Amino acid sequence: MSGLEQWNWYLDGWIIVAGILCxxxxxxxxxxxxxxKMSMLxxxxxxxxxxxxxxxxxxxDSRSSLPMFLGAVIAGILTALFTxxxxxxxxVDEGAAMGVVFTSLFALGLVMIVQAADHVDLDPGCVxxxxxxxxxxxxxxxxxxxxxxxxxxxxxxxxxxxxxxxxFLKELKLSSFDPALATTTGFNATIIHxxxxxxVAITAVASFETVGNILVVAMFIVPxxxxxxxxxxxxxxxxxxxxxxxxxxxxGHISAITxxxxxxxxxxxxxxxxxxxxxxxxxxxxxxxxxxGIVVVFIRRLILTWKILAEDIIALMYRIEExxxxxxxxATYLREILFSHSVPTSLTLRYLTKHGQLSDANGNxxxxxxxxxxxxxxVRSHRLWEHYLVEHAGMSAENIHKQAEKLEHFxxxxxxxxxxxxxxxxxxxxxxxxxPPEEKTN
Amino acid sequence: MRPFVxxxxxxxxxxxxxxxxxxxxSEVQSQSSITDRRIDIPEWNDxxxxxxxxxxxxxxxxxxxxxxxxxxxxxxxxALLRKRALMGDALSHATLPGIAIAFIIAxxxxxxxxxxxxxxxxxxxxxxxxxxxILLIRNMTxxxxxxxLGIVLSVFFGAGIALLGIVQQMKTGHAAGLESFIxxxxxxxxxxxxxxxxxxxxxxxxxxxxxNKELTLLxxxxxxxxxxxxPVVLLDMTLMGLVVVVTIIGLQAVGxxxxxxxxxxxxxxxxxxxxxIVNMTMVAIILGALSGMIGSAMSAIFxxxxxxxxxxxxxxxxFLFSMIFGIPRGILIRKLxxxxxxxxxxxxxxxxxxxxxLEARGRLKExxxxxxxxxxxxxxxxxxxxxxAKLKKIxxxxxxxxxxxxxQEDQIRLTKAGLLEATRIVREHRLWELxxxxxxxxxxxxVDQDADAIEHVLxxxxxxxxxxxxxxxxxxxxxxxxxxxxxxxxxxxxRHSSRRRST
Amino acid sequence: xxxxxNPTSSQxxxxxxxxxxxxxxxxxxxxxxxxxxxxxxxxIPPGKLVxxxxxxxxxxxxxxxxxxxxxxxxxxxxxxxxxxxxxxxxRVGYVPQxxxxxxxxxxxxxxxxxxxxxxxxxxCLPVRKKHRARAMEALERVGIADYAHRQISQLSGGQQQRTxxxxxxxxxxxxxxxxEPFAAVDAATEKAIVQILQEMKQAGKTALVIxxxxxxxxxxxxxxILLNMRVIDHGLTEDVFTPENLQKTxxxxxxxxxxxxxxxxxxxxxx
Lengths: 442, 503, 271
What we know:
Chain B is an all-alpha fold.
């Protein structure tokens, strides 16, 4: 009996809404944590707010939100402060200082929570993974609708975060990349830093009841990290991170109630599955992102190597034509000169033939007109480079061939013209061979 | 150092072994889950029983956690100096899915899923997987290490939580209490567990003692280490391996969330007590052991408080104490030193002021004259920007040190000792003035202030160097101050010969 | 078969490989496919103080690190006294840049110098008194024996540099590779280091020193390598340290070359 059959729009719907709100609020701020290389500070703050929460429980004797937020904000700022102190006095690296502060605060908070739980109905396990399943049970009446309190709180937080990011986008962007410049252009990068930290603390508190203290880090860091792999523009990154966070929230909850049933168990923690879903999204992004994905980069390098091989072949054919017009080389001959392997060689030869740069007569190859044009440009680049290197870079004529060989593959027309100017439009390379002109002259 | 450490280890061990060996079969306290929130204030009998280790169960726990603390202190010192603290944190969070999966597989195979070695193997595997993932993300994508740590920490932990949700529904799973690995629960430690922790911990310590100098070099100067031919990657992996082992043996007592603190806090506290890595490691071992001992004892008295939290709080208390009171690097001692320095500066200014006053009036030429002339305090106030109250305090102290003598509260004169000291101070000051003008191209008008600032923090060696530079230049061995004042020649020669380094 | 005449830059000395302290052939090092040093080739005759000069980013540090294998090379061959570095590293002393370590590390000057002997002492074996005595001698040689037990962050910059130098000296190496030893040190330390270099030269040792101050090159070094991604020239200072060569090294007529390498990199990314 699949969990989906038990789907109850009232219960599950609100759970998903809470999850989405939590994910988007966190992702908005998380982009800047990742860009400012402060991911672990986000982790530290979410751990360190625990004593603030516990104190708020103990003082206010309830789960009402306002004292909690206050307590959390104070704890968050204290974390940053204490970390700086310890780093200054102990002369240790920031990671260690952070580690001391947030773990001791967390331990303190844990003890306090266990104590406070006497007064308030609070399960310390809630700290780990929240209690998103309880979302629909605690509602407030708003305009005649029964809305879960958590949803209301998270919506407010979402609005706050959204406004912060929209209004301060320029300043956030600048201070993330160049804090010194930011300060000189008239606003204080430190204030932005502390504002960001405060909002992180607030969001963590609001998420405390949905995903718990520890898993909120997943919502802060993972969707933005995935977005970072997918784009280079800040605005796009923010939007994508929000979308990915939403997807993670939805799939997280659905998997939490369906997947265990495949193995004969009841549903498991939604918060945990949200983190796992986010992680899987990140994995896919990291591997297959169009520009930066690991797999994509690998394949690109491979294609580049083959492209270079193809160009080497036709350039070689041109030079052979120059010297020995009777010779029609075959694959083995080419391979020997170029030191290439048989598979790439035959693949590229086939490619060149198909694209009309070579003509194939029973395994012996010859340049076509198109091929000859292409080769001419390559050789021209090469010989211009040789000339340049000798004239300007002071290299000796024996050494330059290899350099020029590397450079010729990456020289476009514009660069070639500049080269030509710089070498005063010579028409002979240092070895005395003619430099092919740019346009075919007949 | 090495034999000393071994003796120390043995000494810490021995009492435990003795008590431990004389086992008796007192009652084992029963534990309910972490949600049992009652906190009973323990009676005196309870305190006595725990701290005198009369209770068998307590003995085991204290034995185990003490050894854990020692191992964590030693390995943590290297992890701290290698700047890998946060990676240890991500590592410990990443162990959770492994624990759950190990339980599931073991139960599925019909074995005892709760056996510690089984769970620890699972923890180790997923912990190492986590570290591998961190390195992959860091090296192969544009993300930096902090993001890699955050991703692995939260995603692996989330997977662990989700798996725990399944485990709790399993027949044997509910009673397994696997969540105790998250916060730590020493009460579930049995004798075999303690032995496991002890042996693993000791082995780790042994390895790091053997590799002490190689690891130290690795942490200090990786490039030099490579150039000498040390296999840096292997050493790094060994260090991380030691961290993994210590982490997983600590999961039971401290829990995975807080395990990192036992690795980081004792060494950081130890740092305030010494300037040498060898001593730092030893102090870290002791502090770690104490944290384990006291923390788990406290946890036995208050059975409903998470033991991991107790151990960490004890460690933190020791850290705070060390940060404030530690010698030589604690805050208090530094403030004291600064205070001492200020006092010295003020005293020197007073003496110099007196000297120059006398000098300007030609009172230095005769001995009696210099020692008997009284200088009104108002004149001194003009030379410096002191408030009258402050000057009075400085004078009072100088009087206590028998450098000056007061008359009627508003006039002072130098004593013989005071005159000698004042001469020395003035000479050093003028050496600096000359140096700054000659070599640092500072304008004569600015010189007084600059010399003022530097001379108080000079070491004797530097002054001696300065002397040999400048006294060689002066024609008669008498220094001419830019402000044209003389100094006694004998004084210079005496000081010069006693301080000069041979060649 | 040795012909030890006074070499000029156009003549090759005929020394056997075992006598040549450093022989570099066709060394290329690339970082993310962007060449940092390119086709570097030179041989250093023994007993010379060699200065490596070039503008910032010219690859000087990279060259030294690549010689020692600290960073991987894309191509080329390096030999130290006729063998690969790995086989002869005990004959090489390395003095890295001061910024390469965290000076808050809890060790004193003597500890740092003793580290130079760790490989010699051997795996897992402890440091003995005799090792510390040798380290002390090295500290005396560089003139900071009085500071042996001071924690290293309490040393001045010049004293820190001398500590690094002592660490290399304690090995009794035949070849010394130094990365900017004169950067930001006081006059006394500079004199001391030059003095030690002279003593080393008289003892027949060789030193390869990255240097940034062109004024002092003719005074300190009798052999010079001019580096700007490639070797512009190398040889005796009097022959090679000329205005034209300096122009070529620092002059910046290589913009097209840089542009081409940039294009290379961008092309790969956009494919």
